[in-house]
Structure formats: structure tokens, C-alpha cells
TrEMBL record:
Gene3D superfamilies: 3.40.50.1360. It comes from the Bacteria. NCBIfam families: pgl. GO terms for biological process: carbohydrate metabolic process; pentose-phosphate shunt. Its EC number is 3.1.1.31. Belongs to the glucosamine/galactosamine-6-phosphate isomerase family. 6-phosphogluconolactonase subfamily. This is 6-phosphogluconolactonase. Pathway: Carbohydrate degradation; pentose phosphate pathway; D-ribulose 5-phosphate from D-glucose 6-phosphate (oxidative stage): step 2/3. The gene is pgl.
Length: 256
């Protein structure tokens, strides 16, 4: 039985360091148990803050970064190195400072890469990469210990936007065309793929997120508000600052 927990902290800075601390402990625990950990990164402003906070945490030195698998929940389909790519932002915020095993780092393909400007082919390529990392005979997906998500003002998660056809995508990944948020072309994990993660962490800060967060936690439909459908198999954690949590019913909060 999966549980949902809502954690509210005072502000965005504290949120970033609290999420970073959780992430570091989760990776340390997974490595203690089986030697490796598998994390799905997200893009966006709060995500970059979290990754910068990980870099500053002394406890992060307890992680064997060569045994961490890194995936992405979505990508803005732009050329490699573009500053708007989620990969570029994650590398600048944290990854470039770590001793990672490049074979365990799995950015989504870039525009102008092996698939040119074909986002559908890029999404299919990423699906094959995921399948290649799955346990033989089990599924098309590897195990994800934690899948982190930002939450858009409109309630989107990864690049699954409200009322967008990508909501109905089958398969593990999907191209996104005509995204309401720039850039218009993206690649994303699908909702069923997100739902395969052991833990899903939805991280949001600021008053602009309050309406979407409040509705998603209070039971809105996932087609209208994709964040409402982002759940983990064991646990769904909403990690919020006070401003983003303004519309969350107080009985659902675990901390003020
Ligand atoms: O475009 C995107 O936006 C969302 C939310 O970003 P934020 O800056 O409002 O926190 C992000 O989660 C997603 O990965 C990204 O592609």
C-alpha cells in the first residue's frame, strides 16, 4: 500500500537543503542495501537549487557516486549544451563536480544528435536505453529509488501538460509537441513510467505553485492536473515550502 506524505518547510532555501539531505540519505541507504542507487532527476528552478544544496552537504561525501544511476524525467528538446536543457542545468548545479561513472549517467537525447530533430525517434531511443537497464525478463524499466519532479504553475510534471495528448501516451517515454511552455518540443517519461518508481517526490516552492499543488493534493483529476497522477509504488512525498502549500488542507500537512 502506497502512502502519501506532505512535508511543509518555511521557505525555498530550507526546502532545497531539506530535499538535498533526504536525497543524500536515500542514496546512502540504497547503496548500503545493494551497492547502487537509481535516481531520476527533474528540471526547473527548485531542482537546480536542490542539486546545488547536495553539492554543499558534507554527508554527500559518504556516497559512492560511481555507483549511482542518473536518469531524467523529461528534457527540453534542444541542442546539447543549451543552457535551457535540464541536463545542462543539472551538470552545472552538481554533476560536473562529482566522480560519476559516465555509463551510469543517462541524459535524454539532444536535438541535432543521432536523431536529428526527430523528437519521436529520440524518445524511442531513450525507451531502449531504459529497457536495456531493466532487470532481464522483468519489465521495460529499471528500478528507480527516487523520481523527483518539479510542479508547474499549471500542474504539469515532467513534460506532461494538462489536457495535452501526451497524457494518453502508452509506452515508457513520449515525444511532446506543442508544449504550452517553451520550448515547444520535448521528451518525457510517461505517467505509467513515473508511477513505476519506488518513491516519487514532488518538490514545489513559491506562491505561483499554490493553486496547482492544493488541487492536486485535494484529489483533482490527473488529465486536468498531471501532478495529481504522479505517485510512487511505496511512497509519494510532497515537499513544499509554506507559500506553495498555502492551499493544502492543514489536516494533510505533516509539518508547519
Ligand atoms: O519545463 C519544466 O518545468 C518544470 C517546472 O519548473 P519550475 O522552474 O517551475 O520549477 C520542471 O519540473 C520540468 O522538468 C521542466 O522541463
Amino acid at each position: 500500500m502506497s502512502e502519501t506524505v506532505v512535508v511543509v518547510v518555511p521557505d525555498a532555501e530550507i526546502l532545497a537543503s531539506a530535499v538535498a539531505a533526504r536525497l543524500v540519505v536515500k542514496i546512502i541507504d540504497a547503496q548500503a542495501e545493494r551497492g547502487w542507487a537509481s535516481i531520476v532527476l527533474t528540471g526547473g528552478r527548485v531542482a537546480a537549487k536542490v542539486l546545488r544544496a547536495v553539492r554543499e552537504l558534507p554527508a554527500a561525501d559518504a556516497i559512492d557516486w560511481t555507483h549511482v544511476d542518473l536518469w531524467w524525467g523529461d528534457e527540453r528538446f534542444l541542442p546539447a549544451g543549451d543552457p535551457e536543457r535540464n541536463e545542462t542545468q543539472a551538470r552545472e548545479a552538481l554533476l560536473d563536480a562529482l566522480s560519476l561513472d559516465p555509463a551510469r549517467v543517462h541524459p535524454m537525447p539532444a536535438a541535432g544528435g543521432p536523431d536529428g530533430d526527430d523528437a519521436a525517434a529520440a524518445a524511442a531511443r531513450y525507451a531502449r536505453e531504459l529497457a536495456a537497464a531493466a532487470k532481464p525478463g522483468s519489465s521495460e524499466l529499471p528500478h528507480f529509488d527516487v523520481l523527483m519532479l518539479g510542479v508547474g504553475e499549471d500542474g504539469h510534471v515532467a513534460s506532461i501538460f494538462p489536457e495535452h495528448p501526451v497524457y494518453h501516451a502508452t509506452g515508457t517515454t513520449a515525444p511532446v509537441h506543442n508544449s504550452p511552455k517553451p520550448p515547444p518540443t520535448r521528451v518525457t517519461l510517461t505517467l505509467p513510467t513515473i508511477q513505476s518508481a519506488e518513491e516519487v517526490w514532488l518538490v514545489a516552492a513559491g506562491p505561483d505553485k499554490a493553486a496547482a499543488v492544493g488541487m492536486a493534493i485535494s484529489g483533482a483529476g490527473p488529465k486536468q492536473l498531471p501532478a495529481a497522477g504522479a505517485t510512487g509504488t511505496d511512497r509519494t512525498l510532497w515537499l513544499l515550502d509554506r507559500a506553495a502549500a498555502a492551499n493544502v488542507p492543514s489536516k494533510l500537512r505533516s509539518l508547519r
